[in-house]
Amino acid sequence: MGLHPLASEASAALLVVDQQYDFEPGGALPVPNGHEIAAPIAELMNQFQTVVVTQDSHPKGHISFASSYKNKKPFDILKLADVEAKKIDSIFDREILVRYLKSVPEQQQVLWPDHCVVGTSGWKINSKLPIEKAQLILQKGKRVDCDSYSAFFENDGTSTGLANWFRAKNIQKILVVGLAGDFCVAWSAKDAEREGFEVVMDKNLTRFIYSSA
Predict the structure, then answer these.
(1) What is this structure's pTM?
(2) Which of 23, 82, 120, 134 is within CB 3.0–4.6 Å of 87 for a Cys-Cys bond?
């Protein structure tokens, strides 16, 4: 890999999303071929002056885990209407689920296998990444009652503060890479654009859970 065109620009930053072992083959929520991009991303991290790495960081019993619900399995969809109709048996109070689902897009939540639980081996960032090159490691999804796909906003709209962090460093352009392309990478790219940044999502340096479409 040669020098990336954006790497020489002081106003450009690299955002590496969730390149963690649980999202790679052998992990709890593997993204097909997710391991393939770790080495080229590591090269990019050595090229950019400003680098942010995100780390999905869930507590046990997270609201997005299928194991937090009776008779639910990974990739089922938790819907507000079902919760309001008292069709859902969960470790969470119904009021908590209703409040959360009313705040998220489409008023529903994909239920995932337990993944990226803080302190587990799958939670760790791939060791190929030169973490010392990152000025910020942003841990997201830490609230037990709210999921967080985007690096900029939790799913209920709460800001992570990343946009202001970038602005303070006079960043105008952001290259977004990592896992997974159809969830956390895509949401981060869209929110970065919404916040006024010029965004490049490199599809060669991400992999997708469902498809690359």
Answers:
(1) 0.95
(2) 82
